[in-house]
Amino acid sequence: MNDLVKVSDLSIRYGNKTAVKQISFTLPAGQIVGLLGSNGAGKTSLMQAMMGLIPYQGQIEILGFNPQTQREAMLEHVCYIPDVAILPPWIVVADLLQLMCGLHPKFKLELAQQKLAQTIIPLNAKVKQLSRGMIVQLHLAIISAIDAQLMILDEPTLGLDIPARKAFYDMLINDWCSDTRTVLIATHQVDEIENLLSNVMMINHGQLVLNESISHLDERFIGVRYGLDAAAQIEAAAPLHRFRQMGGECAIFAGNAPSNIDQLGQTFRVELADLFVALAQPSMEKPHATV
């Protein structure tokens, strides 16, 4: 499997503050990777470094290109939506599509027009006349009409209602993804994307605390719902995270579950949202669950 992205010992600093600290990972072709982390965890800084927008220490290779020294060549094969999507407010939508034809050699005009036809965005409207949700839809239609190998999305559906978000994810799966392309998507809408992902990475305080395929999460993490009679044994086993849910107390274990866990309560599959909360706990030491 070809690696489209290679990151090694990457650190990003803003003055005395370290936003990303010595993280390494690869992204093979054919994946949809969720990048999860709390606000300020380092997600946006990582994506900006991958796009060559900010200085960094370490090594980044995108499709064989160095983002700092070969950015123009790299951008022919990459499409990117930042966390704040900015389009010229004065431009007419139809003119923006024509402009994209001149700006990006792999932009497919007819494909963008087809995607916009599935929305209520008028081609003769100026960007400044569109609602926030419409602007996001316009940006997504443009980006998804680029015949790239790597798509990097930072909170792409922010501002969209539920039907529009579902339509975007359907488009991503059915129209864009393939075994030669990879998507890296940062989002807070963990529940919505869990079933779409092939892999997940989690960043906490600039460090990569999880890099795992979705299919392997069940092998690494297990949850148990237990009663008061098992509380002491659960606590003694040092779970990764404890929380209360309807039906009782719950605990999540990461590879250190008690051998008699089935006797202590009802075990369950750990949802990605609960795992995200568990690994983002600042007061607990986290395992680096890398592939």
From TrEMBL:
Xref: SMART domains: AAA
Sections of the chain in a coiled coil: none
Domain ABC transporter, first and last residues per copy: 5-230
Gene3D superfamilies: P-loop containing nucleotide triphosphate hydrolases
Keywords attached to this entry: ATP-binding, Cell membrane, Membrane, Nucleotide-binding, Transport
Keyword Cell membrane tagged: yes
Pfam families, per database record: ABC_tran
PROSITE patterns the record matches: ABC_TRANSPORTER_2
Gene Ontology molecular function, alphabetical: ATP binding; ATP hydrolysis activity
Name of protein: ABC transporter ATP-binding protein
Keyword Transcription regulation belongs to the record: no
